Amino acid sequence: xxxxxxxxxxLDKHCIFCGENDSTVLDVHRIVEGCNGGGYDFxxxxxxxxNCHRRIHHGGNIVIHGWVTSTVGKLLHCEIDGExxxxxxxxxxxxxx
Length: 97
Fold this sequence. Notes:
alpha+beta, 3-stranded antiparallel β-sheet, two-stranded antiparallel ribbon, 2 helices
């Protein structure tokens, strides 16, 4: 499991939500929680920084609906601050301080 998380962080290299690329603060979030049978496979994970990870679990202002397939590839369907978004892991957002 730890190897899968490390591999995913090295592959994606930045937070999909804010663009943070400091590997020491990147984490791997399971979309379906482990207690509900969710594993660390690619279709159930997203790389995010520790700040955005807290927003997912505690702030409630990042809501993840899951990965969807579109004509441009896989996109993460989510809501950030109440706004619906479709994010690509290949498009790095500008990091905000």
